[in-house]
Amino acid sequence: MASHTPGAPVFAPAADLPDWALRSVDLANPRLGARALYASDDFFAEVSRMLNPEPAQFVPGKFDTNGKWMDGWESRRKRVAGHDWALLKLGVKGIIRGFDVDTSHFTGNYPPAVSIEATVSASDEVEALKAATWTEILPATPLGPNSHHILECASADAWTHLRVNIYPDGGIARLRVYGRPVGALESLTGDETIDLLAMENGGRAVSWNDASFGSTVAALLLPGRGQNMGDGWETRRRREPGNDWCVLELGAPGTVDRIEVDTAFFKGNYPDRCSIQAAYVSGGTDRSITTQSMFWQTLLPEQKLQMDAVHSFSEEIARLGPITHVRFNIFPDGGVSRLRLWGKVEKK
């Protein structure tokens, strides 16, 4: 009998995200340390796949020992009362703005509804989490097949763990938890040198003029070096005067001693030069801060860049004292993988 060769994978389209999600961090990203800890059932597809940062894929003709291979979390058909659920550890403690509950490629096997609870716990032990006090932050919400469900969260508290309930069973391809890390730098004394801009330390992207290629501007703040040319901030080819830019907020006010600009994997499309402006901002909105950023003082004058390289600057940095925001300018356009601002948190 002839063997069946799986077909080419079909990748899920990206979600059409609202502004609040675009300016948030995916707190459930494994690259920040997020993990799936437990599932009441993941017979058809293990729960850890639900947190994969890559788009969900469907591979025609691909089966494993339990049945059709699916890219996500999928439980078996429930034949008893109750519902399935999973425990997740967020990569960092954070305030949650909302979720993308993605049922891409799940058509006749998606859950009809989902709800999400949250807690704060110092332990990742499953039994301790089962006994924890949980707060519902997303009430039971209907789901549809093969779709991104962008759902807002009304909670203003910060959380460390989630309990995802599906009613009664089925599959979720991906779960994104959009929010903002908090509290990562609270215990520092001001003597430690850290990356003030790192996503895991609370850094975030405020605004940008273009992000046509690659990942989002927030990729500049991810841990580690970029994994490929799609893992960074890349703008379109500029066909008019000017330059591209983004505004970034530090995790906490601090002084900068060293700057790293990494153009990993960007070879024929890296910026010719870069510069950084900075300010200590108190109050205002993202929009007003962006407008003000054009007039901020220079933290790093224009510097020549090279392809696929880590550029380190220290002597070139102006001593402006503590800052809260930076405007990263690239000339005229191109791609940058990571931006690091090494320094010390402002002493209170």
From TrEMBL:
Family named by the database record: Belongs to the allantoicase family.
Keyword Hydrolase: yes
Organism this protein belongs to: Zoogloea dura
GO molecular function: allantoicase activity
UniProt keyword Ribonucleoprotein present: no
Residues annotated as domain Allantoicase: 33-181, 202-345
HAMAP family xref list: Allantoicase
Pathway where this protein functions: Nitrogen metabolism; (S)-allantoin degradation; (S)-ureidoglycolate from allantoate (aminidohydrolase route): step 1/1
Catalytic activity, as annotated: allantoate + H2O = (S)-ureidoglycolate + urea
Protein name (Swiss-Prot/TrEMBL): Probable allantoicase
Membrane-spanning segments: none
Source domain of life: Bacteria
Xref: PANTHER family: ALLANTOICASE, INACTIVE ALLANTOICASE-RELATED
Name of the top EC class for this enzyme: hydrolase
Gene Ontology BP term (one): purine nucleobase metabolic process
Keywords, ordered alphabetically: Hydrolase, Purine metabolism
EC number: 3.5.3.4
